[in-house]
Amino acid sequence: MGAMFAHLTRADFTGRSTRELRTVERHRVHVLFDEIQIAIYNDDRARLRLLMVKLALAAAHQRRLS
């Protein structure tokens, strides 16, 4: 019986795997890159600062998932 559960990981019980979470975070970062490019093009410095903070937080969160 113990051998049946030896290969289980935490992801087996959470419903979402870490691979799925990394994919979602990666997509979020790509969307932020696009928004940053638009803010740069429009010379919207306030929005650019906000987006850079969001990007830093997303990158930190992505590192924790890895």
Task: Summarize the biggest pleated sheet.
Answer: none
Treating each run of at least 4 consecutive H or I residues as one helix, how many helices? 4
Mean pLDDT: 80
Helix content class: over 70%
Q: Give the class from helix and strand content and strand pairing.
A: mainly alpha
Binned strand content: under 5%
Query: What spatial form do the alpha-carbon principal axes imply?
Result: rod-shaped
- Which residues form runs of ≥5 with pLDDT under 50? none
Tell me the series of helices and strands, N- to C-terminal. HHHH
Number of strands: 0
Q: Over all CA atoms, what is the radius of gyration?
A: 18 Å
Fold topology:
Layout: H1 2-5, H2 11-14, H3 18-41, H4 45-65
Helix pairs in contact: 3-4
